[in-house]
Amino acid sequence: MRELRFGAASLLLGLMTTTASCGDDSTPGNTGLGTSSTGGNGPGVGGSGGSGAAGVGGAGAGAGVGGSGAGGAGVGGSGVGGDGVGGAGVGGAGVGGAGVGGSGVGGAGVGGAGVGGSGVGGSGVGGSGVGGAGGDGVGGTGGGGVGCIAPLAECDADPVTVCETDTSNNPEHCGACGHSCLGGACVAGTCQPIVLATQQSNPWTIALDDTHVYWTNAGVASSPSGSVARIPKMGGDVQVLAAGQTYPFIGIAVAGGWVYWTNYSGGTVRRVPVAGGAEETLASGPMNPKGITVTDTHVYWANNDGTIMRHPVTGPLQQFEVAFSAPGTKPYGVALGNGGLFWAVASADVGVIEYLPLGGGPPSRIAELQDLPLYVATQGDHVYWVNTGAGPSIVRAPMAGGPTEVLATSASAGAYGLAVAGPDVYFTNHQQGTITRTSSSPPAAEQVILTGQGKPRLIAADDLAIYWVNQTSGTVMKLAR
């Protein structure tokens, strides 16, 4: 909280050389009221209100100037063709007068409320409230400024209408001017989630391109009941791109006009054109493929047997054999960055984050002693991952190696997927049914932004929204950022 220090407020009133009619200074507890000047068209000047009193500007065909009230209210008079100037209220309220054809200037309320005056055909400057509720003055071309009291705001830049937008329920200006809910509702200044798709069978993974959301339905592990589907980001019909898949529950990627995924139980890596078409099998065999990612030239994935594989977008299969620090360790999620491939070794006792140059060479260890890390993501010069063990957390480290930084922790197990987007990291908790946001760099503060989700799994983000799948409710979801 800011510390505010004030001296005594004073208002200097300059009088015009024309004839004026002025109110007397009032004694404490009384009111000084400026009289109107009619014949001389001079200013009406409010008297100085004593403690607890009000100084009220008189109405003149020239300028109306509000008096100063210590502990009371200074109210600007109305000037037709002239200026209306708000008085200074110390501990009270300063309210700007109305200037028709002139300018309306809001008074200053120290410890109270300052409300901007209105100027029609002129300029308006909002008053300030320090220690109380300060009005926002918005100047218009040829129109007056106005102080909007939240949740009202001036969003349409129209000099005729003022404070026309209720940001508590406007889906195009939700919580602030210009913040669109992208088709969702706005409740109490907060965008609500949008259901893009329903009745999906065990949805698990998710990926994005510029126009669509892609996901896999894992189906049942022991049968070819899984599928790959997509839907426009702005909503529409679900398009099934591939059916009859065998438990595609870990990896999906979109690149170069293709959707790639891994069938964990089926032991295959496959792809299909993003708009639909013939499916292709890139690799098959006695393996359990997990996370997958794609460059312009190669597809990379992790195998449950401890190997990292790659396949040219066109050409024969190639394999990187990776030696880990302990037998039986299993790579899981993968991500590209820093000219190489990062992956998580999903083990509670040997949890590590590894890096391998794409051109080949020995792997290097970025972090160790992690607690069951699953998915990884990269942004800038850092790699991020989610620890899903007994002490769930969101952690990052420099891609080139260095100290780890914990960005978020969770009071209970269940952290699962993560997405990094600019200043934010979003992660799911499938046991608590929550979506949480934290900062992508320290110092970070967690904020649960959604509850009541049906076992949310993987999550993705673009510049405007986040997207995720709810496993038990069978839904694909979206929320404006």
Automatic annotation (TrEMBL):
GO terms for biological process: canonical Wnt signaling pathway. The keyword Signal applies. It comes from the Bacteria. Gene3D superfamilies: TolB, C-terminal domain (2.120.10.30). Residues 21-47 are annotated as: Disordered. PROSITE patterns: PROKAR_LIPOPROTEIN (PS51257). Residues 37-47 have a biased composition (Gly residues). Residues 1-22 form the signal peptide. Keywords: Signal. GO terms for molecular function: Wnt receptor activity; Wnt-protein binding. This is PE-PGRS family protein. SUPFAM superfamilies: Calcium-dependent phosphotriesterase. GO terms for cellular component: plasma membrane.
